[in-house]
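Reopening closed ticket. The problem is back. First fold of the pair:
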Amino acid sequence: MSAPDRLAVLASGAMPIDLRSDTVTRPSPEMREAMARAEVGDDVYGEDPTVRRLEDRVAEIVGKPAAMFVSSGTMGNQIALLCHTRRGDEVVIGEGAHCAFNESGAAAAWSGVQPIVAGAGGLFGAAELEAVIKPPYDYHPRTSVVAIENTHNRAGGRVFPEEDVLAIAALARARGLALHLDGARIWNAAAARGKSVAELAAPFDTASVCFSKGLGAPVGSALCGSTELIRAARRFRKMLGGGMRQVGILAAGALFALEHNRARIPDDHMAARTIAASARRVPGAVVPEPETNIVQIDTPGVPAERLVSAAARRGVLVGASAPYRVRAVTHLDVRPDDVRPAANALADSIREVLA
């Protein structure tokens, strides 16, 4: 949405229903209180007690021996690639993976690696992985790591099938490849499948998880893995400028989110289904059933920005994710009594632009 459109919504005096992303949430009064009371120390020296509590807790939840607090999911993913690769290596990803599509070319800039896409639509299987692994010839890049995004953002919040993950993991082990999980929305995947996060993360050497999306913290992610790997990761974090000092104030928000906001994630999935069902009733709109909290709305032949602007005039903020595709993301700041008005406004906007 353009800046004038956003300003017009705000100038109307009505608080918009913001479905652009699940990153737009604001900390609750209770979370702010926890942050204000946080016990802090210098985390570069390993002396911030709140950070240590967060790292211990998230490592326990993800089922890994150790964890490291980082400022963003991008930093977590890129440090994992630095740990698993050498310059000139190749990283196997799904189509549209965040670590290649939304991280400013960081993999090329910092690790000196290139991505190779397996499958189509974001997800892939063991046969598709096998097809892109390079033979160990001097003139090939060395395939060194497989990165799986779960849920997959650009695929519409799809959950990576567990049977495919296990088959990919078995092949990767046989071929000597590391496995990294981009689990920014692993909380949504776990809720959708009725599995624990630890079960979904078990096949992976490293896993990055995000606190500022479905869990609603203002900032922060964690990289989880073995004690030895996380020890090496701390040096890369410092190298990338991610060494933070009295950061327990932020860690307290993430810790609060972990303990209080996971259980309500299915509410976001239900809200997404309501919005999708309403949009699907408009003739001409193509709206897949959402698996989690991301609704994709295709308007064939009609630029997505037209729908973004039409929805903004009705007090609903959504984002263009492709030339003819709009994305609506539900989250904890979308109240139960916001869902039906948002769904109706969005449907009316689709009807307008497709007329």
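Second fold of the pair, where the issue appears:
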Amino acid sequence: MTVAVVPASGVAADSARAVAPSGSANDAPVVSIPATHSPVDVRSLALGILAALASVFALSWAQAFLVPLLIGIVLAYTLNPVVAWLEAIKIPRVLGTVIVMASVIGAVVLGTYALRGQAQTIIEQLPVAASKFAAGLARMRISQTGNLQKIQSAATEVEKATAQAAGGSVAPREPATHVIVDQSKFKLSNFLWESSRGAVGAIGQAVTVVFLVFFLLLGGDTFKRKLVRLTGPSLSKKKITVQILDSINASIQKYMLLMVTTNVLVALLSWFAFHWIGLENAGAWAVAAGLLHIIPYLGPAVTALATGMAAFMQFESFAMALLVSGASLAIATVIGVFVTTWMTGRIASMNATAVFVSLLFWGWLWGIWGMLLSIPIIVIIKVVSQHVEQLQPMAELLGD
């Protein structure tokens, strides 16, 4: 019996059919040889991994420079429509930029000044709250220790009764040995020194961001025109660059509008809940809840812990503390899961898994600032990937 071997490629198959005898072609079964695959380029893969690790290291090393820069760019994108509107009604761009920046800084200062009394009261009550909270935990520990001692006594009596019934004697128990581990003590002076250094650094970065936003708003579309000019004489490349910049602008503005809306909603609902429960300084706690909600996951947790301690200090009841903390967490969860997730999907058309993975990565890399900037960064990456052919797989991976 004759077996005809047919290669996988089309040209080789035609040659094989031409060489094979015409009479035996119908009688012989056909066996296809699978095409050979090219081996994986290990050198390219290794170079890609090394390049990715080097990029991550560079991003971590340049955090002090990149974080204020990105914050300034995001804020400039957010405030630019207001400046453009003022310029459209015949107000010079320099004057419009000064008006917008002065209005934002003035609103922050006036809001802080209006809540200074409640904030000062909260700060003055912190030592008393800490002592009461520690006393409450000590009472709970004593109560649990008493219950454990009762259970242990009951178990000892049962053991004695079992040993007597078996006719044996009960061996006396040796006292337990307590091991004391010497731990480093917390020093308030070191904590205050580190906190003051952190506050000075934060103020310096805030001033840097303010000046950066001012100059970006003052420049207007200057950088946009320069980027378009740098793409070369090709009209298609210029068109793609303009589309990318416009899409980034629109996406960041929509996201910032989303963030402002959700934070205001969290503050209003928190004020209503705290006022209904009877928590003192409800307005200050509501503003703190709205501001901390900017930080995903971590901000609501800090708000719940702080408001729970304030409620325990006021009511001296763990039940009331749990009620206030639970209300704060419930509001943040409802707004974050239903409102923020839905609106983010509508704005950026991204799946929730990609957003969460981006949050984990940038939070691990840059901490709280990375968590704040994670969504704008992934939005920019998705917009660029949609308009660049080589990055289409990335856009498909991030899309919903």
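Update: turned out to be a display glitch only; the data is intact. Residues 234-400 form one domain. The radius of gyration is 33 Å. Please close again.
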